[in-house]
Amino acid sequence: MASQIRLKLLPSARCLFDEPIRVKVAGLKSRQVVTMRARSTDDKGVVFSSAATYRADESGEVDLNRDPSLRGSYVGIEPMGLLWSMTADTLHKRLQKTNALNPYVVKFSVHEEEGEGRMLAEATNERLLMGDGVSRVPIKEGNIRGVLFTPPGRGPFPAMLDMYTLGGGLSEKRASLLASRGFLVLTVALYGHDDLPKVVKEIHLDYLEEAVEFLKKHDKVSGKGIGVISISKSGDLALSVASYLAGVEATVWINACSANIILPLYYKKRQIHSTVQLDMKKIFSTGSGDLITKYAVTNPVAEENKGSLIPIECAKGHFLFAAAEDDLNWDSKAFMDEMVERLKHHGKENFDSVSYPGAGHYLEPPYGPYCPSSFHVVVGKPVRWGGKPKSHAAAEVHLWKKIQDFFRIHLSCDAAHTTANL
Predict the structure, then answer these.
(1) Tens of pLDDT along 158-193?
(2) Which residues are tagged catalytic?
(3) Which of 64, 88, 243, 380 shows the smallest number of beta carbons within 10 Å?
(4) Which residues 6+ apart lie within 8 Å of 381 measured at CB?
């Protein structure tokens, strides 16, 4: 019987990380109950897995686009539920895909519901971080340490600077996927990568200015201006890049602060912003080995923090602010609301904002496993990020499209509409 059962991944078992697939099973008995499973291993060897129970239709087929999960990692009709509901086999771990050359491999399988759950069929989904023809070039030029991703073709392409987080090293996933969608992207490390210092006590805007100038001078970059995309701590740095540096036309801020936080910011050897700090007395333990830091950030608009507030009203380009309403790292929604009101007060209309109920801190390209908690580089312990898996996954799908549309509008170039082939 099992030899007649087929597990299909449509339209292809090979796709980009941010593309949905259709999972179908054929050849089962009429109304047979089976368990669908997904399993993957990240670059650090952490195993992620999910499982959901389905009932076949009269003809012995299961279609995740049509049929509801009866129980398991999620319930209801969730075509990509096996991917976003995967959980790590170790507490407080987030999916690590540090090198875009390595695809994200997911093993799908269908099992008998009863007995020992004998496997009936399996299929492998190769989810690429880089489309065919995208080039990946490590950059070690001047002070810049990072990786440049360039779409296939002659260009010119709209260009952006990807500042992922404050954490050491590089994360290439978002940058490589944006390049696969037609953008030329430089992702940079702030510290802890290559010969950069392992620990820093201050950030210099000059470093990010050097990265912006590198992009502006690139022979495949369109002359429209540069985009910046950020999340978490790098979000306030993106605000400073947009407010102080020339040629920045579009900035995406995701779940960040409205003021300079943690580390003082310098420019031209002069401190331009002091810091908003964390009040460690307002960090709470959950009792599960992780912490909630949401209320630890002191008020950015308080008089004593005036030197940390970034003058976004001076920015020439456009902003897209995205906040998760259940962010437990800090109150991103409140920070976003403050910036929106400040820009309105100054008569500015150069912004769009969106908030997501039920979403947590790490809003990333869609279809990766939802992360409830992981290690926080500043706190030095695991923290809870917030959100509910289903709502968070839906927010990632919506925001990912919105980000690309935003950059295409404000960094307009026909090449942005090309996508790398698979």
Answers:
(1) 999 999 865 556 889 999 999 999 999 999 998 878
(2) 232, 327, 361
(3) 380
(4) 290, 291, 375
